[in-house]
Every structure is written in C-alpha cells, then in structure tokens.
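Hey, weird one. I pasted the CRISPR-associated endonuclease Cas1 sequence into the form twice and got a warning about non-standard characters only the second time. First submission, copied straight from the form history:
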Amino acid sequence: MGTIYITKDDTFIGKIDERIHVKADRKQILDVPFIKVDGLVILGRSNFSPALVAELLERKIPMSFLTTTGKYLGRLEPELTKNIFIRKAQWKTEDNSEKALHIVKGFIRGKLKNYRNFLQLRNRQNNHEKLEISINQIQDIIDGLERKNNVNSLRGLEGAGSAIYFSCFNLLIKNNEFSFNTRNRRPPTDPVNSLLSLGYALLRHDIQSAVNIVGFDPYLGYLHVAHYGRPALALDLMEEFRPIVTDAVVLNVINNKKITPKDFIIEPLSNAVSLTKEGLQIFLRAYEEKKQSKFKHPVLNRQCTYQESFEIQARFLAKYLMDETKQYPPLIIKK
C-alpha cells in the first residue's frame, strides 16, 4: 500500500492486533496491516490512540501532519538509526569545504538538468521561442556551476535557474482551464500553486523518511541554510526530485483533466486555494501512483520505483560522505 493518507476530519486511527484501523462517524473506513505501510500522512484533524503511536515508533513508520491546504506542520519521528558513522561524516563536512561544494553542485545540477529536460520535452512537442531561450539559459547556469567556489553563489545560481523554469511553467500546461503566472505560497492563491505546494509537502515527508532510514541527521544540510527545526538535508535532497515527481504529478492531473477548477475552494479571509475532499483524493492517488511507478535508474542500470529511489539517492550521498565513492550522482531523468 505504501503511504496512508487520512483526509477526513475527526477520524480515529487505532491499532487492532497487527493492523491500522481507521474509523469516521463510527464507521470503519480503512483496515490495513502495518506490514504494508511505509508512512502515515494526516491532512486536517484526526485523533489516534497511544497504542498506534507506540506501534508506529516500534516499526519506524513516520507520521506527518499537514493542513488541508498542504502546509507542513510536523511529524512523529522514529528513533534515528544506530549508524553513528554516517552522522559523523555528515557533521565533519564543513560549509564551503570541497566535499560540501561537490554535494551542493550535485543537488543543483540534478534539479536544473531535470528542469531543462522537462522544458525540452515540451519544446519537442510544440516548439516555442521562450522555451528555447529558457532551455539555453538553464544550460548556461549548469555550465557555470563548476566555476563557483562558495555555497552562497551556488544558491544564487539555483534561484536563477528556478526563476527561469517557473517563468515558462505556464507553457507546460495544456489545459485552458488552468494558468500559471508566478510561484506563490504561504498560502498559495491559485489552483496550480496549490497543487505544487501540496505536492512538495508530500515529497518532503517521503524524502525525510528516506534520510532517516539511511541514518542522517535531517537537520544538517548543505544547500539550505540551517534554521531551528528545519530539516535542511531532506530539503536539499528534495531538489532533484521536485520536477520529476511533484511537477510531473501536477501536470499529469491538470493536462489529463483528472482535476478541474471545480475541485478547488477559496478560503474567504486569506484567499488560500485548496482542493475539495474529492479533488484531494484524486491528487493523492496520482501522487502515490507516481511514487510506485518504475523507471530505469541511470546509475544502477536497473528498474526501481521513485519511492525506492528516494532511499537510493540518500545512500549514494552517504557513500560519498564516508569516502566510499568519489562523487555524488544526482538522479537525472531524460525525457
């Protein structure tokens, strides 16, 4: 089953024998064995039993909490793995050291190459001058990564590449009922940004789980600036997955008309846009299907799911930090 998403308010989540039992309005809505569950994500309000919490911790199954609009609130974390050697290697890698710069360049290169490949695919389908210009601009930024020798300047390149990509994101949308002008969040105020924010929150849950499984300290990263309570390393590793997982899902549900404008609601005070319960179910299903879909991993040269690739990339990073490999290879999917 993978990840369980609880979207109905005031549900009760409990443990019966070796199974997760979910009830709403005094009726059972889900009953699934723990062994089939990788994670639990609660969107909105739910109650849960102490027995459930204890079992999730024992089985190292994370439970994340999001608002109904997709804003990340926090998570219940199992104990870190006992592999202190990975965390020692992580802590020893200082900001702007040669190793840290290599890692940051890898995260940015992966993200920008996946951005470029996305735009190239769309440009092959329907040639557009702006897409052509943006593809070349992103390639110029990628080419310039090796000339930078501090993390702040690399962050600037990452921001510039993202701005170019989102400046033509609307050209990736093939459904006239939707449009995209600029990236906005906290809260998202249009349907496309609402889907992107929700998708990135779900991706954060999955990447942070992979980082914890491998044994990292999720709060010590290299690309993202450290803030109290911010899982910087999980956000770092997310970057290369944003276009190939979240953006792909968003464009899939929009372009294939799985979600329509009727699937959104607007909060009157904040103007925050979010999905209806029905729309949320459609999006979560599409996201889970994407995670479980298979592709040929370019480094391992074998089939794996995107869900598996989260942990694979985290393990590649661990191997590099522990000097077991000479480089960190970001996941780049050719379109």
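That's the output from the first submission. The warning seems to come from a hidden character in my clipboard, not from the data itself. The chain has ten helices and twelve strands.
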